[in-house]
Structures are given as C-alpha cells and as structure tokens.
Design brief:
9 strands; globular
C-alpha cells in the first residue's frame, strides 16, 4: 500500500517502470479524445468541481485511463471526499501512476499521471482516509469506468 511518504519519494526520485509505454503525437491524441479529455489529459487541465461523470458514481469496476485504457483505480478504493472530483485511496498497482512535483498556480502539489501514456489524471494529497491517508483527486474526463459483472447467484 502506498503512503504519502512513498508518493513524495516517487515524485522526487522517479516512478517505477510502467507495465508498458504508449506514445502518440498531439495530433493523434486530438483525433482520439474529446476536446475536454484532450484539455484535461494532454494539457494538464482540470474539469469544474461537481461536473464530472464519475463524481457521484458508485458502480463496481475499474477506472481505466481515458487515453490508453490502462486500469488505474479500483472502485473499491473510491470514496466521497466532498471535493467535487472522484477520489481514490490507491492505484490498482504501484507502477501505473507516475507522481510529479507540480508548482503551478503558486502552489506546491503532487500531480498524478498515467505512467503508461503520461495522461494527466489529477493530484494526490495526504488527507485521505486510513489506512493509506491518500486522496487521489482525479478528473472524470481522464478515466472511463469499466464495469465488472458479478457472478450470478446460484
């Protein structure tokens, strides 16, 4: 389980090797993504609070990167943070999220990116629930929910 100390260490020293890499030109990304997805993921934008598709979602499944389809977050780690963005306590694997120091807008934060395609996801903060204490504050436009089918009761 990652903690804030792990996030800071990774932001300062580099992320683990991703499961794979996917690189495309900006023109290729623009063809594949909606304007909002492109703005958020490729231009490091932020959707308005409480407007994202997954802010209030409670369906079971995995949240995959909107750009490359890599599973990033499990719905079982999603929680109501009251911030207006979907929030998670952990990525599904230690090597799928890249952490990067972000000093934009006169603040120091830690940016969360897809480690496979470098898509901006959002930011991570040390004010989440136990046991990790992490709040990965993620833009809905940066992910898509891949629902899982529960086995039928017998």
């Amino acid at each position: 389980m990652q903690t804030w100390n792990d996030v800071i260490r990774l932001a300062n020293n580099g992320s683990p090797t991703p499961p794979r890499r996917l690189e495309k030109t900006n023109a290729e990304w623009k063809k594949e993504l909606t304007p909002e997805q492109y703005h958020v993921t490729r231009e490091h934008g932020t959707e308005r609070a409480f407007t994202g598709e997954y802010c209030e979602a409670h369906e079971a499944g995995l949240y995959a990167c909107a750009c490359c389809g890599t599973p990033l977050y499990d719905s079982r780690t999603k929680f109501e943070s009251g911030t207006g963005w979907p929030s998670f306590t952990q990525p599904v694997e230690d090597n799928v999220i890249k952490y990067k120091k972000d000093v934009s807008y006169g603040m120091t934060r830690v940016e969360a990116l897809c480690n496979v395609c470098d898509a901006h996801q959002g930011h991570v903060f040390p004010d989440g629930p136990a046991p990790s204490g992490l709040r990965l504050c993620i833009n809905s436009a940066a992910v898509r929910l891949v629902t899982t089918k529960e086995p039928a009761a017998q």
